[in-house]
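Following up on my earlier thread - several people asked me to post the actual chain instead of describing it. Fair enough. Here it is, all 141 residues.
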Amino acid sequence: MNYLVSKIVTFLTEQEVISSESDVQDFYRYGIEISISSFLNIFLVLLLGIIINHIAESIIFLLLFILIRSFTGGYHADTYFRCNLLMCITFILTVLSNCMFSNKLSLSIIIVLICVTELIVSVLGPIENKNKPKEILIKIN
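Reply from S.P.:
Thanks for posting it. Predicted structure:
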């Protein structure tokens, strides 16, 4: 990741798209890293959805996951690899849970579970992390 981001920042600097000042370079480096990581997460979940024939579920998962994480914060992995791995594992577990319980639970039980989950998220969120302090999360909300 560092190699790829360095190449992109160097290219943008050589093309005089961005300044060679250190703080400007750091700003763009961070933005490029986050963008690549986010696109990779999205790509991997969509790819898994295609492989396991759950494309609609992968799209719904991504929409809800991104929305919830934007407003509630949460765990941030130490490396991009761990982040990607945890995202894929979370998606697979979500699809497995859906397959296991969708035909066994009534609509009323599912609605109660959603309400309880929403209550827990509302009470506990936003969750602070060193990479995303609560002040930033509160301003977003």
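The helical segments are 2-14, 22-51, 55-72, 80-101, 107-124, 134-140. That should answer part of your original question.
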